Amino acid sequence: MGLEEYQKKRNFSKTPEPKGTEKLEPGNSFVVQKHKAKRLHYDFRLEIDGVLKSWAIPKGPSLDPAERRLAVQVEDHPVEYKNFEGVIPPGEYGAGTVMIWDFGTYEPLGEKNLSDGLKKGEIRFWLNGKKLKGGFTLVLTRYRGNRKNWLLIKEKDEYARKGSNITEEQPNSAYSGKSIEEIAILK
Ligand code: MN
């Protein structure tokens, strides 16, 4: 996909979001950004092939393997975006408040190269985050032939927790400790 769509959607003289560039060196970071836009959602991003592959998760991630969370794939974001916590001004694309809800690194499970798995519609990875840990699967649902709707599912391991609601238990930024309201004020 690359960054063309990301950059076309945004006016970088008005938004503090990074314009960014595609990275040549491999990396294995991930970030989950809590985004209070028109609707609150969580943006899950994995560094693959020099960009952050991105999914919007309306209900956020869960540590309960029984909770299959809809994850709608959106445009690739630049790797620099993982450091973005702040306010997107009114009228701009994605206007609202962005929090770094969780961040860390991942290791592929199964196939070494997640970009091959992405094309096939299933990837498995181990997250080493501040909040999210353990194995996860992202699988494409092919509902009505579209290639945007995936499910994020926690695998059964020592970090799985039945009935957990980690987004409510740990609502604040893993980066600054701030709440959404505090990030919005300090613009
Ligand atoms: Mn978003």
From TrEMBL:
Region Disordered: start-end pairs: 1-26
Annotated DNA ligase D 3'-phosphoesterase domain residues: 33-139
Positions with biased composition (Basic and acidic residues): 16-25
Record-given protein name: DNA ligase D 3'-phosphoesterase domain-containing protein
InterPro entries for this protein: LigD_PE_domain
Organism the protein comes from: Aerophobetes bacterium
Pfam families given in the database record: LigD_N
